[in-house]
Design goal:
Helix content: 40-55%
Radius of gyration: 21 Å
Strand content: 5-15%
Number of strands: 12
Strand order of the largest sheet: 1-7-6-5-4-2-3
Bound molecules: pyridoxal-5'-phosphate
Distance between the termini: 49 Å
Number of helices: 15
Structural class: alpha/beta
Shape: globular
Order of helices and strands: HHHEHEHEHEHEHEEHHHEHEHEEHEH
Length: 393
């Protein structure tokens, strides 16, 4: 089945008694009981399919996890309370029984960098950063660091670099490391990391998958042999997603392929317009034919879908001018997040990469005149008109 069909049908509709609801109900029960203690014991031992306690498993979460396995070609998934909880759990799972050394892409979401430096490093893991778009440089860092885990984003936040996941998975396998890919920006419409050899694909479902700005959630999708470790760690540390959020996420996913196509088309139109605007210094967009990772993009992404994020620098602007420009937006929402039905703009220096030092941001290439635009599903003409009037201000 194609992704549009899977998004509507997969995981959902379990028979309940004599009837089958057309969508999975919100199962709020924290505990389940059975005809006998013998049967409950078999469910605890996983000899019989069933549910005992909501931190272990829940029918609403199981439906979402089944759906995500279909979309990402995984064997097992864990729905988590946020994208960060999902990344934390994925990296912990990847490091289980492996060397406590992590090689991570130098260009990533600020909180992911903070997770590595402020949580994993103090707990004894060695953290090494590398440019993942330079495979020779990455091989050298991996040879030196001998990592147990490698972490990257399929499209980097916010400068939209695209590294070759399949080549990096080969490097990881050779080094005996597990590759964790944050697939939030690309989504399974563009790339399915597990099909390219990655060991974990992680999402903030808060973004494109749920898509309506009303759910905070995450998911880890993996294949054997990591599935059992992922489940048992999930049960122990309890990062699980609540049933209402599972329901909202599944509801969002039904229309996600349609939304994503429209959002990608809007991004192409708006990026072309921004590139010729005299007040715009530089546009970062994966659909730009001059993008530095053009070869990887052509090889890994389907034709005409490049993602729906654009970052751009405003000529000669500092924080004050960026604030004036963003305050001048009338329809585009000035807020932190991305992937929603409404177009949103964020100032990385102030939000997504705020936790990093100015020096660290500078090294990453995140300048004070950079803004990040997440395209929604509105008419492209209206998005362009709003940018135009705000840039004029
Ligand atoms: C690429 C990426 N990964 C992970 C996250 C974290 O997701 P959440 O806010 O759901 O924890 C974000 C949040 O913006 C993100 O942009």
């Amino acid at each position: 089945m194609k992704i549009h069909t899977k998004a509507v049908h997969a995981g959902d509709r379990k028979a309940s008694g004599g009837h089958t609801p057309v969508t999975t109900p919100i199962h709020t029960a924290t505990s389940y009981f059975y005809q006998s203690m013998e049967q409950l014991d078999r469910v605890f031992a996983e000899e019989e399919q069933g549910y005992c306690y909501a931190r272990h498993d829940n029918p609403s979460a199981a439906a979402l996890e089944g759906l995500m396995c279909e979309l990402e070609s995984g064997d097992s998934a864990l729905a988590c309370a946020s994208g960060m909880a999902a990344l934390h759990t994925a990296i912990l799972t990847a490091l289980t029984d492996r060397r406590r050394s992590i090689v991570a892409a130098s260009a990533m979401y600020g909180a992911t960098t903070s997770l590595l430096m402020n949580v994993f490093e103090p707990s004894g893991a060695a953290i090494h950063f590398a440019d993942f778009c330079d495979l020779d440089a990455l091989r050298a860092v991996v040879a030196e660091a001998r990592p147990g885990c490698i972490v990257m984003e399929s499209i980097s936040n916010p400068l939209l670099r695209v590294a070759e996941i399949d080549a990096i998975a080969a490097i990881a396998n050779e080094a005996g490391a597990a590759l964790v890919v944050d697939n939030t920006f690309a989504t399974p419409m563009l790339v399915r990391p597990l099909e390219l050899g990655a060991h974990f694909s992680v999402h903030s479902v808060t973004k494109y998958l749920a898509g309506h700005g009303d759910v905070l959630g995450g998911v880890v999708v993996t294949k054997q042999p990591h599935a059992d470790t992922l489940r048992s760690l999930g049960r122990t540390i309890g990062p699980v997603l609540g049933p209402f959020e599972c329901y909202l996420t599944m509801r969002g996913i039904k229309t996600f392929p349609l939304r994503m196509e429209r959002q990608c088309a809007n991004a192409c139109r708006v990026a072309g317009w921004l590139a010729s605007h005299p007040r715009v210094e530089r546009v970062f967009f994966t659909g730009d034919p001059a993008h530095p990772d053009q070869a990887a993009i052509r090889r890994l992404f389907p034709a005409n879908l490049y993602g729906a994020m654009i970052s751009f620098e405003i000529r000669g602007a500092g924080r004050e001018e960026v604030f004036r420009f963003m305050d001048g937006l009338e329809m585009i929402v000035r807020a932190t997040s991305l992937g929603d039905v409404h177009t949103m703009m964020l100032y990385p220096v102030m939000s997504s990469h705020r936790e990093l030092s100015p020096k660290h941001r500078q090294r990453m290439g995140i300048n004070d005149n950079l803004v990040r635009l997440s395209l929604g599903i509105e008419a492209a003409e209206d998005i362009i008109a709003d940018l135009d009037q705000a840039l004029a201000k």
